[in-house]
Amino acid sequence: MPRAFAAKNQRQGSMRCFTIDVLDLRCHEALRPQRRRFSDPEDIRYSASLHDRIAQPLIFCGPNIRLDTGVYLFSFEGRVDGALAIEFTAGRGKVRLKTATITDFSDPQCLVITTPVTEFEVRGSKTDSLETLNLESISVDCLAAPGGLRDQ
């Protein structure tokens, strides 16, 4: 287990709620590299020099789940070089809950949900300064989640 992952599990008053695997996210097929071996990790990879022909700014989105009221910490696992625009949305992107620009994956993003939402998504988009992105997963810790998580 990576040290960063283990450290996140030891936060006072929080518990690992769920992990968003990259297989739960939608992205352009060019951003999912072919695995040569079964043991190779699944990830989403973006490189400005290789993927500049992809016109849409959206790199990934998902997982389209119901999220109950609570305080959540989203920790992005992988590596980013440059700035990645992040949106937390409901209703398949129609309701914007929070936006952020991430230049480092070491600090989690806090999201407070005051009423349950459906079709919750995390959306990552390229910016002018994004050079590379290697997203392995998004870990979600619950600081306070009275209702929990349910699939739609």
Tell me about this structure.
With 152 residues, the chain is mainly beta. It has a single domain, classed as Jelly Rolls (Sandwich). The chain is built from two helices and eleven strands, in the order αβββαββββββββ. The strands form two sheets. Strands 2, 4, 6, 7, 9 and 11 form a six-stranded antiparallel sheet that branches. A hairpin with a 4-residue loop joins strand 6 and strand 7. The longest helix is centred in the first third of the chain and has 7 residues. 20% of the residues are buried. The N terminus and C terminus are likely disordered.
In the CATH hierarchy, the third-tier topology is known as Jelly Rolls
Mean pLDDT metric: 83
CATH architecture tag? Sandwich
Write down the overall geometry.
Answer: globular
> Distance between the terminal alpha carbons, to the nearest Å?
30 Å
CATH class reads Mainly Beta
Rounded to the nearest angstrom, the radius of gyration is: 15 Å
Instruction: Outline the biggest β-sheet.
Output: 6 strands, antiparallel
One letter per element, helices H and strands E, the order comes to HEEEHEEEEEEEE
